[in-house]
Amino acid sequence: MPEGPSIVILKDLVKNLHLNNSEVLGVSGNVKTIDKNIVIHQKIKDFKSWGKHFLICFEDFTIRIHFMLFGTYLINDTKTTPLKLGLTFKKDQLNFYTCKIDLLEGDINQHYDWKVDVMSDEWDSKLAIKKLKEIPDAAVCDVLLNQHIFSGVGNIIKNEVLYRTRIHPLSKIENLPPAKLKELVKEARQYSFDFLEWKKENKLSRNWKVYHQTECANGHPIIKEELGKTHRQTYYCVKCQKKYE
Predict the structure, then answer these.
(1) Which of 9, 44, 52, 204 has the fewest other C-beta atoms within 10 Å?
(2) Which among 103, 125, 145 is positioned nearest to 3, based on CA atoms?
(3) Does the pTM of the predicted model rise above 0.85?
(4) What confidence tens digit (pLDDT) does each residue in 75-100 have?
(5) Which of 114, 103, 15, 14 is nearest to 60 (CA)?
(6) Pair 157, 191: CB distance under 8 Å
(7) Interval 162-173: pLDDT, tens
(8) Last residue of a domain, one of 52, 86, 112
C-alpha cells in the first residue's frame, strides 16, 4: 500500500506535465463508481494529495484515487492489467490500475482537513497532540495508522518512527511523558519527509532500521508480530524500545 510520500511523488510527477487547464479528451477503463461521461471535455484545475489519496480536481468535483494494497499507475504508458481509469489529454495519458475510485462533489476543501496530513504545509502538530490525548487508552502502534490524526502514515513509517523514538509499539498514549508524545508527533512528520527523499533516490529500503530487518541498528534481534487492534505487522526491538506503563 503506497504511503503518503509515494502519493506526493505521483502528484509532483503529474504536475510536471503542466496539465492544469488541460482538457480531458478521452476517458477509458472499467471503473463503475463514477460516470465517465462527467469527466470528458472537463478541464483539470489541480492535482492534490491527502495522505494516501491522490486527487484530480475539476471545477465542481474531484476524482479521488486510493491505491489500496495493489494499486499502480503509469504515465504515458500501459500494461496488460485491466485498466481501472485512463485519462487522455492532448499530449499525455494517465492510467490507473487496481485502485478504488470515487467522485467527490463540490469544493475539495470541504472534504479534507489538510491540518492532519503529515506532508501538508498546513500540518498542525498541536492538533495531533490534542487528538491523541482524547484517546489515552490507545496503543501507539494503532494511533500512528489513524488517518484522522496522521494522514499518510502507513506501516513502514509506523515501524520506523517507533524505533526512531525508542517507543515500544504497545505503549499507551496516556503513559507517554509529554516530551515523548511531542517527539512521536514530530518524528511522524520528519520521517515522512525522509521517506520522500529516500524514495526519490531509490534508497528507501537501505535506510530501514527495523522494517523487514532481523537485527536493529544496534545489533539486537528484531521481533515481528501482528500487534494492536489493527493487527498490522510490527517490527520492534525490546531492548531499544521502551514500553511505557
Answers:
(1) 9
(2) 145
(3) yes
(4) 999 999 999 999 999 999 999 999 99
(5) 103
(6) yes
(7) 999 999 999 999
(8) 112
